[in-house]
């Protein structure tokens, strides 16, 4: 990663304390190749699974203000409740998490199979959960607890072998007069964001990176426009911990080491790019009274497998209360995940993404070696007929085992792929893992979507890739049980839907879309060289479906294609889509 001259200067100033420009011969070219970056991140790619912690003085009241449950996540209560600084700061006087014990907390993460921990050192409220150099608005000086939580957790992680890192809200700060985001407290005497960065962000982050032991991760959040100098000065701080990994949320020109997805799992991971999904175990990031929206253990374990099967990491968040512990619902889930990881952890740690486009019964992760590959088949839906088809797998299979008991499994290889004979009952109702050793370079035939013998091509909702804006969950598959599934909640005009398929019988096709909408809606369909402007007239309701002919499309030759549907932002109205069918034009 190439550091600019300005950032070299800023680094030098930080390290030497001098602001004198570096002499020409002192400004070494600092570049990092993709391979060097991958090597630096090797532990992160091996780890796959980490604990996120949102903890602050908002935890004292569980996001409630004057008895009012505020909308949004609890750590946003100061903003949602428009709580004046003078009033919000008083929560610090009640922050006394006497039940907190760093060793116990870290052991809970470790026993869950988590390999790294990222905690909010300073969130948007500006309160420091460490002994800040900037002032006394921190856990040591302003609370009856009086202990440096970051220092205790850093030590415990070091002793128990977990990597440790900080979340730091570098732009939003609702306490400092130069921070972004506080537009409700009229007592603030505004200063520039440069002043905020120079007098608070730089000193605090420098302190976190030099006084808390080895720091492996710096997790920026909610970037805002700042001066180029501010960005460079903040960015340069990472050189204080040479191996540190940063995310893509410092600013749009700072991609960092990995992309971040929030609360939802992408249909497919970014290509050739490290990425991580962060997600609260319940509904709120910070502890929120009444937040019962805990994801089931099944959902959490399947999320972990799903993310790993796409090549990503999972950063699962817990929310300590004002007493310094997490709720029993979270403790129970973490223990159950840990029980699963004790048996199946090798199917997650150090794996890479699936070679299969889609598996009806579950997911696949893999480890490639010089002479072959180990496939880890994560079976969510145990086949009733006792036979598991691994579609398109062409390599000779050497052996297959259930990870639960290492009993060898029978298998045979056919034109359609490899079929593994399974016992009647799944060893794990959530996710039973089968390891399959294959020899040679992995060879998987694309068994994706293609035409039937009459040339028709059926593109179902459940076979679509749905691309949302990061963080949004607009446009998602709705499982309708007995009824056909559909893509719904398609409110996001930027969300697109696409299918990959193979054309073996070229020609001209009529496109028929089966959809339901409350208002007329326009969209654009692209496939190959063709672009079609489609219109769907209202069907009267989201439950009334009609098959709309939306145009014709030409595939002059056989091959692999993608058909994409994108809302026409000028005339879009959300619609529910069950399927698109391409029928050969007579
Ligand atoms: O505003 C924050 C939010 O409070 C939380 O910290 C999440 C975690 O990724 N990040 C921001 C929302 O994207």
TrEMBL record:
Annotated InterPro entries: DUF5077 (IPR031712), FUC_metazoa-typ (IPR016286), GH (IPR017853), Glyco_hydro_29 (IPR000933), Glyco_hydro_29_N (IPR057739), Glyco_hydro_b (IPR013780)
Keywords of the record: Glycosidase, Hydrolase, Signal
Biological process, per Gene Ontology: fucose metabolic process; glycoside catabolic process
The protein's Enzyme Commission number: 3.2.1.51
Domain of life, per lineage: Bacteria
Residues covered by the Glycoside hydrolase family 29 N-terminal domain: 25-346
Keyword Flavoprotein on entry: no
Secretion signal, residue range per the UniProt entry: 1-23
Record bears the keyword Signal: yes
One GO CC term on file: lysosome
Pfam families per record: Alpha_L_fucos, DUF5077
Residue ranges occupied by any DUF5077 domain in the UniProt entry: 464-570
GO molecular function annotations of the record: alpha-L-fucosidase activity
Family: Belongs to the glycosyl hydrolase 29 family.
Function: Alpha-L-fucosidase is responsible for hydrolyzing the alpha-1,6-linked fucose joined to the reducing-end N-acetylglucosamine of the carbohydrate moieties of glycoproteins.
Name this polypeptide is given: alpha-L-fucosidase
Species, as recorded: Haloferula rosea
Phylogenetic placement of the source organism: Bacteria, Pseudomonadati, Verrucomicrobiota, Verrucomicrobiia, Verrucomicrobiales
